[in-house]
Write a structure and sequence with these properties.
four-stranded antiparallel beta sheet; 3 helices; alpha+beta
């Protein structure tokens, strides 16, 4: 894990526990392909990704630039709270999902298909 990107905050910048070190492939879980994200990709050059819960905006920026070889302008994050769902044995809570909207430089483009 020589190319790992550590998850840091200003308080813990001196020491990063090994269990908090995330690789670029661990930060970006998957790209989100929806009608809205396809529209944003075509008009605003903005792509949506599901990211790890610990990932910060600088971590996401570095991971996208490393994995896709593009220049990132802006990163916006959203945490979608999990909803309660009915199961056979009672109620269950769906997990929270962290999403990132990544705006790229006009000269950069990501080919997802």
């Amino acid at each position: 894990m020589a190319d790992a990107i550590p998850h840091t905050t200003p308080v813990e910048a001196e020491f990063v526990p090994t269990w908090k070190v995330l690789d670029a492939t661990q930060i970006i879980v998957k790209p989100l392909i929806t009608e809205k994200s396809n529209k944003y990709a075509a008009t605003r050059n903005t792509y949506a990704f599901e990211v790890h819960d610990w990932a910060t905006k600088p971590d996401i920026r570095a991971a996208i630039e490393k994995l896709y070889n593009v220049k990132v302008i802006e990163v916006r994050t959203i945490v979608r709270k999990g909803k309660p769902r009915r199961t056979k044995i009672g109620w269950a809570q769906k997990p929270d999902i962290k999403r990132a909207l990544v705006q790229l430089h006009p000269d950069s483009k990501i080919e997802l298909f």
